[in-house]
Amino acid sequence: MFTTEPLRIVAVAAGLSSPSSTRLLADRLAAATRERLETEQDRAVEVRVIELRDLAVDIAGNLVSGFPSATLEEAIGAVTEADGLIAVTPVFTASYSGLFKSFFDLVENTALTGKPVVVAATGGTARHSLVLEHAMRPLFAYLRAVTLPTSVYAASEDWGSSGDEYTEGLPARIRRAGGELARAVTGGAAVSGASKALGLDDEVIPFERQLAGLRPA
């Protein structure tokens, strides 16, 4: 039986088409997080997905006038008050979409302080996967959020793929990211979550000792 107030998980999806792979990825990440929280931690969860395509006119109006509509203000409030955030964008011109950036331009730069965030993106080819590292992580670092270790990129060929002996398939990456977010919103440290995900020991071996082990006797 669930205890305490529900945890609020908000996913922001910046896909332009309907339906879109961006919305699909947001839904799957939210479902993975919900499953871990409900089945493993016995917590009630409220999930909300905000589709930015529905707010495009409101976002443009706010950028021009400086005043948000009631609908946009409510959406920004849901993001800033969430216990955990999932942010998913399609890749346009080797970066996040303009709509995605415009929405987060309207979020106060201290409003996400300490909030755990999973970043994810979709694109036609795996060549754009570094957008997660060179664009999305710096954006949320500026907003003072805690970006979780596992980010998820889904290229067209990833859907329905189970991976191979060298790489995890998309479903495994979604489950891992959902597990990290579930731990973070219930008080698990993001660093400790990263260590478990990467299979690291608690002991940190100094770099000098690692180098010494490579020198010939």
UniProtKB/TrEMBL annotation:
EC class of the enzyme, as a word: oxidoreductase
EC number of the protein: 1.5.1.-
Keywords annotated in UniProt: Flavoprotein, FMN, Oxidoreductase
Stored InterPro entries: CE1759_FMN_reduct (IPR023932), Flavoprotein-like_sf (IPR029039), FMN_Rdtase-like_dom (IPR005025), NAD(P)H-dep_FMN_reductase (IPR051814)
One of the record's GO molecular function terms: oxidoreductase activity
Record-annotated NADPH-dependent FMN reductase-like domain positions: 8-159
One family name in Pfam for this protein: FMN_red
Domain of life: Bacteria
Protein name (database record): FMN reductase
Organism: Streptomyces poriferorum
